[in-house]
TrEMBL record:
GO cellular component: cytoplasm
Record-linked SUPFAM superfamilies: Phosphoglycerate mutase-like (SSF53254)
Catalytic residue positions: H8 (tele-phosphohistidine intermediate), E81 (proton donor/acceptor)
Molecular function terms, GO-annotated: phosphatase activity
Source organism phylogeny: Bacteria, Bacillati, Bacillota, Bacilli, Lactobacillales
Gene source species: Lactobacillus acetotolerans
InterPro entries in the cross-refs: His_Pase_superF_clade-1, His_PPase_superfam, PGM_Phosphatase
Binding site for substrate: R7, H8, G9, Q10, T11, D12, L13, N14, R58
PANTHER family to which the protein is assigned, alphabetical: BROAD-SPECIFICITY PHOSPHATASE YOR283W-RELATED (PTHR48100), HISTIDINE PHOSPHATASE FAMILY PROTEIN-RELATED (PTHR48100:SF1)
Domain of life of the organism encoding this protein: Bacteria
Pfam families tied to this protein: His_Phos_1 (PF00300)
Protein name as catalogued: Phosphoglycerate mutase
Length: 199
């Protein structure tokens, strides 16, 4: 199997450096839409066996731009972004100032955030749903090419599930509309590229 992940285009919350998780359903902003269209000009979706997307607006819009109406898009709830609980939608800089131990050295929400957002998702749960999705893709499309349009933190965990036993902190967040590609053969994943920018 070949599986390619695309992160959605920019939203206003991305631009303002706010937490944008499962409960925030923003659409692409004008800049995000234009950049997605520019990137999609250098992308051919017709070579893929199947296309999956998170059902959140920002991912669906990006998937439609990248597929150009040439492929059906399957929505899968397992691809929804990480649920930050009480932190969803809040400015990251304010949270970092208030809870410095819950933000990692790279300015991303750390695993310990859940002490302050008890209704948020755990890394373990995210790893589990990513693993379930990846296992299903390998069974359904062992010789296929799978395109997945989803979210930054989710893509980090997909990579971590394959390569780092679910330790998402080993991977940076890719850029909006950037790509990650894996080959998967005989239960062995191999990373082809990470954070490939198209435009």
């Amino acid at each position: 199997m070949e599986i390619v992940f695309v992160r959605h285009g920019q939203t206003d919350l991305n631009k303002s450096n706010c937490i944008q998780g499962a409960s925030v359903n923003q659409s692409l902003n004008e800049e995000g839409r234009k950049y997605a269209e520019k990137a999609a000009k250098n992308f051919d979706s017709t070579k893929f066996t199947v296309v999956y997307s998170s059902p959140l607006n920002r991912a669906v819009e990006t998937a439609k731009i990248f597929t150009k109406g040439k492929k059906d898009i399957i929505l899968d709830k397992r691809l929804i972004e990480f649920d930050f609980g009480e932190w969803d939608g809040l400015p990251l800089d304010e949270l970092k100032s208030k809870y410095p131990d819950a933000v990692d050295p790279w300015g991303k929400v750390a695993k310990s955030y859940i002490k302050y957002a008890p209704h948020g998702e755990s890394y373990e749960h995210l790893d589990q749903r990513c693993g379930e999705f990846l296992d299903e893709m390998a069974k359904k499309y062992p010789n296929g090419k799978v395109l997945v349009v989803c979210h930054g933190r989710l893509i980090r965990m997909m990579a971590a599930h394959y390569l780092a036993n679910g330790d998402m902190d080993r991977f940076d967040t890719i850029d909006n509309c950037a790509l990650v590609k894996f080959y998967y053969r005989r239960n062995t994943p191999r990373l082809k590229y990470y954070n490939k920018v198209l435009a």
